[in-house]
Amino acid sequence: MGSDTVIITVNPLPSVEITPPNPAICQQTPPGLVTPGSRNNVCSVEPITLSTVETYPVYNWSTGATGHAITVEMPGSYRVTVTAANGCSASKEVELAYCTEVTLEVSPTPAQLCEDTLILQANAGFVSYLWSDNSTGSSLIVTEPGTYSVTVQDAGGCFAVEEIEVPYCAATSVDLTIYNGLYDWVSNTSWSGGQPILEDREVRIGAVTVANLNNTDGDYMPGDTTELADHLDNDVRPVNNSVVGRNEIDLMKLVIRKDAGIPASAIKLRKKSGNAKLWSQPFKGTEVSMPGNVVTLNSPGLSFSMDTMVLYIEAIAKSNLVRDIEFQLEYLKQRDTVKATAIWAEQTRGWYARSKKPTVGMPTDTTNLNYFDESLFIYRLNNQDVAEDTTLYGYGPSAKGITGLNIPGQGDQSNKNKRLGGRHLVEYRVYPRGADILADSAGIRFDIARQKRVISATYRSGISTPFVPDQYSPTGQLQLARRKHPYLFPWEPPHPSYPNRHTQRDNEFPNDDGNQKDEDVRLPSSTQHPDSMLLYSFDNASNLIKVDGTARPDIHIAFRLTKSTFSEFVRVNFANFPEEGDALVGSRASGRYEWHCIHYHKRGSDNKLVIDTTTAPASYCEPGKYGMGGAKGKIEIELTPASQTRGYNVKFILNSGDSYWEIFANDNGTIIPIDTTGHNGSTGSWVFENSQLKITIKRGTEAGNTPYTTGDSYAFNVFRTNDPVNGRKSKIAPGRLIFTIDPTLSNF
């Protein structure tokens, strides 16, 4: 093993300063006009030279110039980018302002419309005034909120411009407070949300919830096959629809307070923007009618209690922009505004096919996904559960060692748990753009959760009946059954033994993947990558294979078959998600992305489970050897077209120099004798043949061989599928795989 040393030098960025620091120029063409005014020298009319304080090899100005300095005559923004000798670059921008002999000032500051009118007054000392309404006095009477401007000219012919924002008066007699979603307002149960937004954050950051496109209460459309999304449901309470699920948790509470004596008829609530509805009850119930997006607070169905009114905002679609949901409370000229954002994520891409691409964090790889910020995720994706052919995705040969890492001390161990190499990578896009910055300021966390429906069967050596751990458990073991697989998915019919379970499908029960080590659950900063709205998740969806190297045939796997459908989605939370185990927290913030996998494997010659490539309806696994000692004989098996699924045991009998093999089956624990081979002396082979198979056992001839002895045995299984081509495929693919829990396993 060799080593080397790499020295990394970190150079500082160039320091850029533009002089003069606050440049201004007399502009004698007023903004929007092309007619020059008269000139004199009261305010400098000479062109301004902008230059950098420091000297660098390379300059690039926003004007296209590449020198140390530029000369400009027009007000506006100017930018320079410099590059130092070490190759590092930095930029600086400066605003070249208008100037007049007398500084333009407009009062009052700040300007608010608290009465019927407000007078904006420009200071004296100018020869002309021009307001944005084309009036020419030194003052302007304002009756509506908005943006106003004034352009002035001094005696020297220089112009100046001032822009004034006039809002309504800040509310003092009424108050509007908004609360985050992710809270059950019916039972006062927090699902990490429900925080009131402080006054100074109501507009700047706003409240956050998820778009109400999920199905919190777990009910279904007529016909009982399609989920009823909450935005289509006017009563989001599980007690009205099913016995599981949660109350509505994605509404944002809106609390209105007024001073005593103010009539409700004098107060209005206006929806200024956003895809949102207003409700009077915490489970939705009755929608508040808002003709023209306005409601007066003495309208039918609305009332104050102790000068307080509580309403609820529902986001019926994902936000297109951060804080695009806006409500405003109006009383006289007083206004109080709150804003909110509805988060939602959508699955965009997935990688399933046999491939080494894409990789993560590998600078020389052109297929690299390079904007992850979770180092553990990067390491696991590039190094763990890699197939022996180094592919990262799809299905491949068995992974090496316990974890799939090809490192000393973790060679191929047949008696250890192993996985087939391969998995899939899924990408989600979070909306709206800017949610990365909002997530940091509002404390939003993401998680990718999975719910699964699995049926698996393990045929053990010589046993005809499969072990099916994922099947329904009898009464009294219901919790065990739930751990093995969840309630039925929406598209599944009721199970005949458990008809009530069909109404118990909780769409967000506590079932995750056990940890977050295979999820990139933080949105990278937009300064880190321009496309910062992506989340990723990968899964090793292959079989956990256990091939025991013991002498007991009843725990030695012959065939293993698994079918799985996964329903995956993004969740949002206002706190960190648990790093380990299953938990029901936060709220679903994406649609259900469905994918599935199929595993079909048999025991191979080296005692590992391998993909079965047989094209005939029936195939057999490599026989397990038990006892044997130094016996190095050989067993050969030939199947007929009539071969059926069954486990076989072949046991050697030695009696006074005469020898033969007993063939029997183990059906549900019952030993069923089938027949024996012919008898043999010290030479020759033993042969058994019937309508289903032919067994030939030969003596060992190589050096070190010892004869068979009583107790030596072989055990193997035959498995027949009705679909030899598709039934034996091992694959990962998008979309659902519809199957039933069938004790006969005829669906395989």
Q: Care to describe what's here?
A:
With 748 residues, this protein is mainly β. It folds into five domains: 18-98, no CATH class; 106-167, no CATH class; 174-344, no CATH class; 352-603, no CATH class; 618-720, no CATH class. Strands 14, 18, 20, 23, 25, 26, 28, 30 and 31 form a nine-stranded mixed beta sheet that branches. Strands 29, 33, 34, 35, 36 and 46 form a six-stranded antiparallel beta sheet that branches. Strands 37, 38, 40, 41, 42 and 45 form a six-stranded antiparallel beta sheet that branches.
Topology, pairings included?
Elements: E1 18-19, E2 24-25, E3 48-52, E4 58-61, E5 69-72, E6 76-83, E7 89-98, E8 106-107, E9 118-122, E10 128-131, E11 139-142, E12 146-153, E13 159-166, E14 169-170, E15 174-178, E16 183-184, E17 189-190, E18 207-210, E19 252-258, E20 267-273, E21 276-281, E22 284-287, E23 294-296, E24 308-315, E25 325-331, E26 334-351, H1 375-383, E27 418-419, E28 424-431, H2 435-442, E29 445-460, H3 478-484, E30 519-520, E31 534-539, E32 544-545, E33 557-573, E34 587-588, E35 593-603, E36 609-611, E37 618-620, E38 624-626, E39 634-639, E40 646-655, E41 658-667, E42 670-676, E43 686-689, E44 693-698, E45 713-720, E46 731-734
Parallel strand pairs: 2-7, 14-26, 18-26
Antiparallel strand pairs: 1-3, 3-5, 4-6, 6-7, 8-9, 9-11, 10-12, 12-13, 15-19, 16-17, 19-24, 20-23, 20-25, 21-22, 21-24, 25-26, 26-28, 27-32, 28-31, 29-33, 30-31, 33-34, 33-35, 35-36, 35-46, 37-45, 38-45, 39-44, 40-41, 40-45, 41-42, 43-44
